Amino acid sequence: MRSSLHWQQKVGNQRDWVWRGWQTRYTYIRPDNILENDRRKSLPLILLHGFGASIGHWRHNLEVLGDRHTVYALDMLGFGASEKAPANYSVDLWVEQIHDFWKAFIRTPVILIGSSIGSLISLAAAAKYPEMVGGVVMMSLPDPDIEKEAIPELLYPLVAKIKSFFANPLLIKAVFYLVRQPSILRRGVSLAYANPEAVSVELLDIFAKPPQDRGSARAFTALVKSRNHPNYSPNVKKLLSNLTIPILLIWGEKDRIIPFALASKFASLNENLELITLENVGHFPHDECPEQINQGILDWIDTTVFTFGK
To answer: Does any domain span residue 61?
Structure first.
């Protein structure tokens, strides 16, 4: 049964942290009554949200996972309550944010849990900083190379021109002011969910507040333009193939944002990867069926992460 508390009261102890001169937001929950014998098994968790989301999107997960583990969640730079900076955004920039946060506050191996682009950031962080990561949970892992693979090489110049046109700052800002309108925002968020009842007033509030912040249009422009840069993202298949830690991949079969067919393809790339697929669930399993996801993650940690390599 889900709590009737406001989402701000469900997400732990929120704090601000200045990173590279930018204000960023994070939160944490620590277990109250964990036994000393179990403390050694209680790996910290870091939760990383998807594009346009924030700490609030983990409101149904933080408390449950926090009963057994110290759990942190961050608003990536440019999102949520973190500063809407006009930065040169890339997956690697967010990886550095995570790594510096880890060095500042944790310094022991963690499990990274990502949703959508948060999954991609988790994967890249695990590859770049193996000393930081003991396991990875990814939900709806995006692969920016899919678009390139699907387009004939002959059409590359045309596609480049189209991308250049849509990267015009004036056009991007116009789109930004359009999509943050309540009716348009609701339609966009609804695309990510298989169950319309999951698109609540609370959920819309979580997505609607950050775009109203000062500098949000400027940050959105920088975010969109950065996605066209060739160094925006690493090669997903290569990273996934080379990881030697436990991996849990979770995917909703009704995902309309990232093709569900990718799940089995990714699963074939690494023998340490366990795949969970969910019927009648969309792009955000952790929010659409949190009870199932929370228990699945906790069980995987107990049965796979702590026995890995033994």
So the answer is: yes
**Which residues span the domain enclosing 160?**
7-305
User: Residue holding tokens 């909703």?
Assistant: 252
Residue 207: CB partners within 8 Å, gap ≥ 6?
A: 52, 53, 185, 189
Among 136, 109, 106, residue whose Cα is nearest residue 120: 136
Q: What is the CATH number of the domain that holds 173?
A: 3.40.50.1820
In tens, the pLDDT along 245-297 reads: 999 999 999 999 999 999 999 999 999 999 999 999 999 999 999 999 999 99
User: Alpha-carbon distance 35 to 45, whole Å?
Assistant: 18
For residues 266 and 228, the model is more confident at: 266
Task: Dump the DSSP string for 35-102.
Answer: -HHHHTT---EEEE--TT--GGGGTTTHHHHTTTS-EEEE--TTSTTS--------HHHHHHHHHHHH
Domains: count for the chain: 1
Distance CA 197, CA 224 (A): 30
Inside any domain, residue 195: yes
183: in domain: yes
Report the sign of the C-alpha dihedral through residues 79, 99, 25, 57, in that order.
positive
**Euclidean distance between CA atoms 85 and 220, whole angstroms:** 9
Q: How many percent of the chain have pLDDT more than 70?
A: 85
Evaluate whether residue 1 is within a structural domain. Answer: no
- In single-letter form, the type of residue at position 83 comes to E
CB 294 within 8 A of CB 61: yes
pLDDT in tens, 162-197: 445 445 566 666 776 677 788 888 999 999 999 999
Angle of CA points 299, 279, 57, to nearest 5°: 65
- List Cα–Cα distances, 17 to 50, 57, 109, 152, in angstroms: 20, 20, 21, 45
